[in-house]
Queue: 2 jobs
Job 1
Amino acid sequence: MPELPEVETFVRELQPLLQGRQILSGQVFWPRTIADSEPEFFLQRITGQRFETFGRRGKYMLLGLSGGDTLIVHLRMTGKLHVQPVATVPDKHTHVVLELDHEQALHFQDMRKFGRMWLVADPQPVLARLGPEPLAADFLASQLAAGLQGRAAPIKALLLDQGLLAGVGNIYADEALFRAKIHPMRPGRSLTFEEITRLYEAIRQVLQAAISACGSSLGTSSLQNYLRPGGATGNFQDDHAVYSRTGQACIGCGRPIQRLVIAQRSTHFCPHCQPAGVDAEQ
DNA sequence: ATAAGGCCCTGACCGC
DNA sequence: TGCGGTCAGGGCCTTA
């Protein structure tokens, strides 16, 4: 599923394909994909604009257009953007097509139909609830500590809270907790500052490493899998220490990786390398 | 204010 | 082979 590293990879790889391209027309096949307006209005407003700038906030793609609007795209679980020849017939899971100049088209494909698009003059209201960017130069461990203060929920659940930290999802929450040697059930408020600092470093390192590897592709089919704009897979799944490795040997101690459900999300960890600790309330 | 559970979706997978 | 049930989960909503 696309998290911060996958969205960052999408933005980086879409830029050379889309920059300067003009939107000539469009079609919306699943109206709910357009989050904030009627599809007719969305298409009428986006037509004629060119892709100019390429950014990301959390798991949101921010595609700046020449008319001053921003096309915001959230891929959620199975969303993908692909640049195709204009003659390519959209498949049953393609919900938005934007016809571009140079005989090309941008296809939004999303088997699960959870993905959303917004066309806005000001992105801020859509992004208002997001917490700090974990890779920003001015993001500090003390901010993470402040966010965890007084929170009784398991640290794994808190890492998934986009208001606390923007961009971490199920995969990188598990990977960061393993690297920081923290049990996922630990209440947020029980973490010492030393542990929070370890977690802060682990989050930044694992996200950066995943970006360098162009993200993680884990699905069993091309519809479910995260695939880059050109259809290539990411490579970071080969470096996962715990995610989707239930029963396999821990890379640290050789004992089997275990699976828990926390906040309705599968959670993978090593009970030996990530001990619950005396402070854990469960 | 936080926390927990439901909902949206469809294809893969499992057991019979 | 066919079929029903379960699982996957990000963000938003409701409820306590």
Job 2
Amino acid sequence: MLEFIILGTLFKCSDLTGYDIRKYIEEGIGMFYKASYGSIYPILNKLLQQGYVTCKGELEGKREKKKYVITDEGRKVFIEWLEEDLPKGSSMESFMAKVFFFDALPDKNAADKITAYELKLVAYKNELVEQSKQYETLKNKKDFYYKLSTLYFGICKLQSIIDWCDVVKQRKELEQLVQQEDIEEE
Amino acid sequence: MLEFIILGTLFKCSDLTGYDIRKYIEEGIGMFYKASYGSIYPILNKLLQQGYVTCKGELEGKREKKKYVITDEGRKVFIEWLEEDLPKGSSMESFMAKVFFFDALPDKNAADKITAYELKLVAYKNELVEQSKQYETLKNKKDFYYKLSTLYFGICKLQSIIDWCDVVKQRKELEQLVQQEDIEEE
DNA sequence: GTTAGCATGTAAGATGTTACATGATTGC
DNA sequence: GCAATCATGTAACATCTTACATGCTAAC
């Protein structure tokens, strides 16, 4: 996965160092994906060997900077990954990591992918709602309140992502996703 | 992490096989945590060596079943893990995996932990909202619509979990978390 | 001058997954 | 009789984190 996120980063911006790439990832998808130098640098070397990126070392003062650039072959491989369906059982984070780079895709294409994903989410949510109904009738409910609460967590999270899909697949204004009530500083 | 989830499972139910444990995990927190036999069986052996579980092999017909039971030492270690604060930068999934077992904790204790976690989420959400405002004024917004959409994804997800915390920490009825609109079958 | 941030990298180990190997039992 | 599920386990590999090692540069 990280190899494609690195390629996507270089697809967007040229002449980045490993350090820059980490910052770009952290600032962009840091809320659901973490990458450490211990994984970035070895992968950059692998991508070099595979010919998906090139690298020119530059000296800034005494410090060497290795600036990476994606190749045509690298672009091809990256777009293939973007277009590819997710493996079964993938997390939302994997999906969102792709969405982060969807600006590189034709618009209809991106919307279709989100619609397809939304369908899966709706089906899954309905499944969980059915499950929750089975618990509702049990008498000793308070003995597994927290256990049950995680099921509702799943349902809420799914619903919020379904709502998100509804807005994004139509390219509506994103601001409407946030109820602008009270964001008082605490 | 998995070692504690296994201990928690045996805390709840005795005389489970490795196979049973996997099913319990899958049905309970399968929506955000996966465990394979390739990790469960080796960990069960480790827990045996550490004295946190015991095991009696039983023959059902010709088939051997290894049924595991948690020890007092195992209970102690499990509760310690439950009480412990999460390491920084942990995912929501790690937190929820603990909440799933919170029925084993005194009630006030559990509520406090959820309140503490909620505070972090609110602070983090406000940070992301601030970030999103910086993007709003840019002119070429449509060039990074999807990039920006993942930021809003983060905000929505956080808000939905904050709402969840509000209900659960007060032990309110969980059903109110789901808007009972239209769950038509498709 | 000293702290924070820039910059690259490695080695050890944690923590899994996937695929394989094997076979019993239950329900249709 | 056949498929699905129950049941245990290993070996190879994948993937990443943590801690270490090193040193430059900008800002205060």
